[in-house]
Amino acid sequence: MEKTDHAKRTRNEKILNCLFQKPNAVFKLICFPWAGGGSIYFAKWGETVNDLLEVHAVRLAGRETRLQEQFATDIYEIVDEIVTALLPIIQDKQFAFFGHSLGSYIAFLTALSLKEKHKMEPLHFFVSSASAPHSKFQLQIPELNKLSEDQIRHYLLHFGGTPKHLIDDQEFLNHCTPILKADVGIVKSFVFDPPSEAPLSQDITCFIGSDDIIKDTEGWKDVTSGKLDIHMLPGDHFYLLNPDNENFIKNYITKCLELSSLDCY
């Protein structure tokens, strides 16, 4: 029995990366990465974010400590394993979700699954650089399997988020291209029909860069009976990598959760 429990904990820790554990934290912030991304960027938030928050970053298969695992091909498989990993750590404390781009959709479906199967919802849902899940607007992403290496480099440079010196590094490109292809496949296959009624009830906050090509963030109001707030910050699709924007987001999340928790009583 102990071996089984240990194996489950080890598995869950592979899926959820918490670099800075805070036993006295009031909230748990679960962060979901963008297509091609890993867990490290968000996991590092735990060091600088307010001590009220303990940060757990989702780590998808095929990267970091899960490098030997097959990439997921179905977004619902991803959601199921995240829910399994989350359940042991969200029983005793309030929690919130933050997702960037693809991560917003994984976070959204995870919230739906938790509500439908376990009667649990995040205290607040923070969306970043993502149109509403049922929006007619679809981000135009090329078929990466049909692109040459030079074309992939051009795409990465145009889309932002990856330093040029890394894009020019052949070893980095060899490593990241399969991950990006797998995640783009998930993005392209994701479909969510317009809801007849709001499936969620918590407030949603959308962050977006002023120069982002994403449209229809207003559509997120259709998936919750709670409030929707939209904040535009300077920058492109990866505006959050700007230190000033990152600090704004972390401070906003802390204040927002403090206020949301008061509303619960």
TrEMBL record:
It is an enzyme of class 3 (hydrolase). One of its GO terms (molecular function) is fatty acyl-[ACP] hydrolase activity. It comes from the Eukaryota. Pfam families: Thioesterase. Residues 28-255 form the Thioesterase domain. Keywords: Fatty acid biosynthesis, Fatty acid metabolism, Hydrolase, Lipid biosynthesis, Lipid metabolism. It catalyses: decanoyl-CoA + H2O = decanoate + CoA + H(+); tetradecanoyl-CoA + H2O = tetradecanoate + CoA + H(+); hexadecanoyl-CoA + H2O = hexadecanoate + CoA + H(+); (9Z)-octadecenoyl-[ACP] + H2O = (9Z)-octadecenoate + holo-[ACP] + H(+). Its EC number is 3.1.2.14. GO terms for biological process: medium-chain fatty acid biosynthetic process. InterPro entries: AB_hydrolase_fold, TEII, Thioesterase. Belongs to the thioesterase family. Contributes to the release of free fatty acids from fatty acid synthase (FASN). Has broad substrate specificity, giving rise to a range of free fatty acids with chain lengths between 10 and 16 carbon atoms (C10 - C16). Interacts (via C-terminus) with FASN. This is S-acyl fatty acid synthase thioesterase, medium chain. It comes from Mesocricetus auratus. The gene is Olah.
